[in-house]
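Continuing the batch. This is chain 6 of the set; chains 1 through 5 are on the previous pages. Same settings as before, nothing changed between runs. Recording input and output for traceability.
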Amino acid sequence: MGMVKQTPGGIGYVELAYAKENNLPVAHIRNRAGQYVEPSVASTSAAIDAFSTELDKDVRTPLVDPPATAKDAYPIAGLTFLLVPTQGKSPANSQVVKKFVEYIITQGQSEAVKLNYAQLPAAVQNHDKNLLAQVGAPQNIPRGK
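Output for chain 6:
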């Protein structure tokens, strides 16, 4: 990102927290509602909320170009993903990871805004909890005949 910052007219794409921490200028981008929106925790939350129905079905839904009804939504947003194996090599380590991720998606959400991240809506938290329940759960793997 240093090259972009040093290049007059240079454009890069970084997360909001990085831009804020490094005092980078940010682009106010026109959304479908015709509003030029600054990237912020609030405009990211608005984008997440605009896709709540889709996210409830698939948390991998891209948060790009929200509908015009989301007039305060930043048009380029995204979620952070963690890849957690359902069956790790160490059951004890799997439980530690599971507890940490559970904290992140529940009580840890209160820290999100302070760190320039949007809080997860309840529907996404619930979906994540359901996925997290699979970590360390006995697997029903079909065996050959």
